[in-house]
Amino acid sequence: MDVTDESAYDRMRAAQWRTRGGISRRGLLRMSAGIGLGTAVGGVPAGRAAAADGPIVKPLPPELFVVYGSNAEMRWEAMRGQGYHTPTDRFFVRDHTSTPLIDVRTWRLRLFGAGLHGAPTLDRAVEFSYEDLLALPSRSISAFIECTGNGRSFYTTQQGQTVTGSPWKLGAVGVARWRGVPLSTVLERAGLTKHAVDVMPRGLDPDYVDGGKNLGKVRRPLPVAKALDDVLLAYEMNGRPLPPDHGFPVRLVVPTWVGISSIKWVGDIEVSDAPLFSPWNTQYYRLFGPGYPPEGSAPLTRQVIKSAFELPWDATLSAGRTTVLNGRSWSGNGAVRRVEVSTDGGAHWRRALPHGPANASGWLRWEFPWRPETTGSRTLLARATDATGASQPDVARYNTLGYLFDGVVRHPVTVA
Ligand SMILES: Nc1nc2c(c(=O)[nH]1)N[C@H]1C(S)=C(S)[C@@H](COP(=O)(O)O)O[C@H]1N2
Ligand SMILES: [Mo]
To answer: Which ligand 1 atom is nearest residue 91's CA?
Structure first.
């Protein structure tokens, strides 16, 4: 999970090679016939395919992304001049292992468990093909997907605290237009009972191994109440079929919740009549550390509130000229109501001008005209408040895995 220049270099080389017209190992595998159900990479060990070609399929040009192994964050300056949604080419990617390539002709979504009528086990599952899902009534939503650890590096750089995981700045978030079938529709058609408690989607990507221990497929239980509320089984992103890195053929989109809830490449969904557990709601995605119980907090659900400037880190701005600072703020607790900006390290604050919709599961865009008169280093700050009145503190509460950073980020710029 550590960043090394070497891994960034490897990713870049792989992307360059692909764009120069080389046929990738993945491309060859994709063309080979007979990729079986759930066999992500056609019988070749996933690790080898990944090593040959990089874990992420789409190009990761350095002007759009910072790459940490199998994870890539968007550079926020890449949102400047863009519309409400994050274009797919610059949407961050977070893969526990690597992006699988799935043959949609043989792919099936299988639902099973004691919370369904007559499908107690996987071998008696209710099945849906890709065409079956496309034929069901669809819904579209604009929603952010954000990694729970987005902003993690600021625990260290602003608060001097040690945390583990990818050292994201603020780029592990994106808002897309998602289209798909409400999960509630599929659950009802699969025979949901009144006794259903948890719903656990499981990905078809390779098993996740941590500290030498195989934890199996990426999977995380979702309470049935949330599953029936606003969750989508999405097959489209920004008007196109989901690309491989974002979950083709079908992923969950769980609006306002931690990114890990939105399981990609869903192969099956267990519907239980008792609480379910996986490493992703026990050892990860809880808060651990001083002030938390040894087993951690309750499993994380909603994201917290954040703000970002659409500027490079260490941007250079001109003295004596008005620059419009653009940014976006979002919260898992409800729509953003107010954003304030400081251009002097937090001594003075003024309201930013909101524009466009303040969608509760998306973000609010805003701008702030600024005319710096003198040259030198400055620190820009943005602080949002959401519909619940929650705002961004100066210091985020520490947890060892560096989740849910909601502190005000200190963005350095130079006025020249
Ligand atoms: N099957 C599977 N689903 C997954 C993951 C994964 O590694 N495997 N990563 C999760 C995490 S931690 C996040 S933050 C989001 C990232 O979605 P994206 O890569 O489309 O941006 O997907 C989630 N769904
Ligand atoms: Mo994540």
So the answer is: 21
Find residue 227's DSSP bridge partners: none
- Between the CA of 260 and the centroid of ligand 1 the distance, in Å, is 6
How far apart, in Å, are the Cα atoms of 2 and each of 49, 167, 168, 261, 388? 21, 8, 11, 23, 36
Q: Which CATH number is 360's domain given?
A: 2.60.40.650
Residue span of the structural domain in which 190 resides: 42-282
Provide the pLDDT for residue 45: 34
pLDDT score for 361 = 98
Ligand 1 atom at shortest distance from the alpha carbon of 93: 19
Q: Rounded to whole angstroms, how far apart are CA atoms 326 and 380?
A: 12
Walking along the chain (416 residues) 10 residues at a time, the average pLDDT comes out as 33 35 35 30 34 82 98 98 98 98 98 97 98 98 98 98 98 98 98 98 98 97 98 98 98 98 98 98 98 98 98 98 98 97 97 93 98 97 98 98 98 98
Q: Which two tokens mark 247?
A: 């979950």
Neighbours of 314 (CB within 10 A): 10
Residue 80 and residue 146 in one domain: yes
Residue whose CA lies nearest to ligand 1 atom number 14? 147
**Into how many domains does the chain fold?**
2
CA–CA dist 102, 246 (Å, integer): 12
Contacts of residue 75, Cβ cutoff 8 Å, sequence gap at least 6: 63, 64, 65, 66, 171, 312
Residue 201: name the closest of 220, 183, 177, 186 by CA: 220
What was the pLDDT predicted at 53? 73
Ligand nearest to the CA of 171: 1
* 253, 140 contact by CB (below 8 A): no
Return d(Cα 12, Cα 389) in angstroms, integer: 43
- Residue 129, token pair as written in the block: 């093909």
Whether 190 and 264 map to the same domain: the answer is yes
Sole residue written with tokens 């973000």 = 363
Counting ligand 1 atoms within 8 A of each CB, the residue from 73, 95, 233, 403 with the most, and so the one to mutate, is 95
Beta strand pairing call for 266-272 and 108-112: parallel
The number of beta carbons lying within 10 Å of the beta carbon of residue 322 is 9
Of 282, 314, 343, the domain-final residue:
282
Stated as kind and residue range, the H or E segment containing 7 is: helix 5-19
Is residue 336 in a domain? Answer: yes
